[in-house]
Structure formats: C-alpha cells, structure tokens
Amino acid sequence: MKATVYSTETTEARNEAIEAARVALRENKAIVLPTDTVYGIAADAFSHAGVSTLLAAKGRSRTMPPPVLIFDEAVLPGLADEVSDDATALARKFWPGALTLILYSQPSLSWDLGETQGTVALRVPNDSLTIQLLREIGPLAVSSANKTGQQAATTAEAAAEQLGEDVEVIIDGGRRPIGAHEDALPAEALPSTIVDCTADRLVVVREGAISMEELRQVVPSIITKEELEAENRQSTAERAEERRAASSLVEEAESPTASAPVGLGDGPRASAPAAGSFNAHLVEGGQGTARVDQMRTKESIRQEIARREAAVKPLSQSDARKLLFDDADSHKSNE
C-alpha cells in the first residue's frame, strides 16, 4: 500500500494529517478522509487531474461526476446558480448534515467534474475535521471511499483495503458515522439524501440519512423520483388518450358514411297529415298542391317539369306573328 495513514487522536497528529492532505491535494492527488456519513475519497474540485484520479480509483467514468463538499452555506452562491427559495430552506435546515443538493453550477467556474450537464451536487458535512480541511483548502470533490459496486468504507482500515494503492493520504477519524457501535455493518451506514433542485419542484433522487418526512416538513411540495415518474406516465397516457380522441373525431368527420346534409329527394319520408286537419286540406285541396307526393324523388320532379313544359309549350315565332297580325287585321276590318 502506498498510502500513508494519519491518526487524529491528538491536536499535533490532527494538524500533521491536515498538512499532509493539503500537500497531496495541491499535487493533484487523491486522499481519503472521514465525513459525517462514511469515509470519502477526495480531490481538489478545481483540479481536472485530481478529479480524474478520483474517478479512476473508484472505477467510474465521467458520466458519474462526484459531489462537492463545502465548509459553509455562505459558499453556496459562489458555486451554484439559480438557487430557489426551497433549496435555500433545505440548506439552512439540514446543513451541516447528510443532505446533498443538485443545483445549476455557476457558468464562470473553471472546474471539470465530469459530464455534469451544467449542474453540481453540493453538501456541507457535519464533521469538524472535514470542515477544517475544507476551510483551509477549499471545495473538494468527494465520493464514498470504495470501489464501484462495493460497500462504502466506514473505517480507515476498510478504506485502505479498497483504495490504499490509489491515494496518497488516509486520515483516520475513527468509525463512521460518528457514534456508530463497533458491531455496525457498513450497509447500516446511511449515505446522504440527494435532492435535485434544478426543476420547479424538488425531487428526491436518493433517500438516505434524512427522511422524506423530515424534508416535507420544510418543503411540502417535494416528491420522490418514483412519484415524479408516475406523474409523467399518467401525463403521457392522458396526452395519448387526447390524441386518440381527436384522431377518432377527424376520422369520423372524413368517413364516407358520415352524416351529410340531406339533398332534395334524399331525405326520409314525412308522415302524412291527420285526416281533416288544416295540413291535410292544404295538401289535398289547396290550389296547385293537389295530389302532392310526400316522398318526391329527383326522377319524379324531372318528369313533372317535362309535363308542365309540354302543357305550356311556347308558340313559334311565325305562329305568334300570324296570330298577332291576323288578330290586328280583323280589328281593322271591323272598324
């Protein structure tokens, strides 16, 4: 193992450990340090080489960027952009503590934590040793001290077993979390709760040491990732149903069998008027309406028009002149 393990049992040993960590971090190397949840592997957040070393030690790609630890909430505006009132309320309630907030990163920062999509996960740990280190060195990119897929280390010995060949310094701060009994298993150490604060509604990405009940006491509208996915599925189903309904209406309107305006002779047959009624009198005895068929077809109308034209066939021009002038001559002779 190439890493050096530093005790923190005395003030002198603690200062020596912090100085060794400071030197390693400035040289773009990774260290292991205790936090309030589990042990973490850390690198200078503004060192691309240091962050690359951290990711390589864990066996992670750049698609899984590490969170960043800061020493106080006052640092938040300098690192994060568009911090909502709800996010601020959570930070003030649970920092320092086991709460990680995913926020939009300040675009002017020159760090490279991986493929963050313009975001950064920030946390203030509740550990005096870590706070002292952060205050003196600055923000640290930190992930749990274990190989990907393995249990997070809760002791310096466990961290050394997994990462002793990949880091320069291991600071031994005792069993974590603070107060855990000697027989506690690594799986019993709850990680920090992670909340995504980049949307209008805050979403719990991972529930850990801080419960949903505690979070909702501060931000009642906060939801879990599963609840958000269920809402999205419901919205998708509702939109699909609306599209199907609209499509059905269009198909019905364009169908050849769709109802259309009824033309002359194409409509249903009207019922006959009651005998002796006024309507019956109009139909049966009215001038020009005798024997009117209540279901007049196009063919019957054409036949009727032809019959009427034949009955009142106009005179030819010669017949009309003969009739007109012969009649005039007879009037003269009578005079």
Query: Helicity level, as a percent range?
Result: 40-55%
Can you tell me the overall shape? Answer: elongated
Q: Which structural class should the secondary elements be placed in?
A: alpha/beta
CA distance, first residue to last residue: 152 Å
* Average pLDDT rating: 83
Order of SSEs? EHEEHEHEHEEHEHEEEHEHHHH
Q: Give Rg in angstroms.
A: 46 Å
Describe this entry's structure for a reader.
- The chain is built from 11 helices and 12 strands.
- It is α/β, with parallel strands linked by helices and 335 residues long.
- Helix 1 packs across helix 5.
- The protein is elongated and about 140 Å long.
Which labels suit this protein?
single chain; about 325 residues; alpha/beta; DHBP synthase; twelve-stranded mixed β-sheet; disordered C terminus; double-stranded RNA binding; ATP-binding
In brief:
The protein is of the alpha/beta class and 335 residues long. It is built from 11 helices and 12 strands. Helix 1 packs across helix 5.
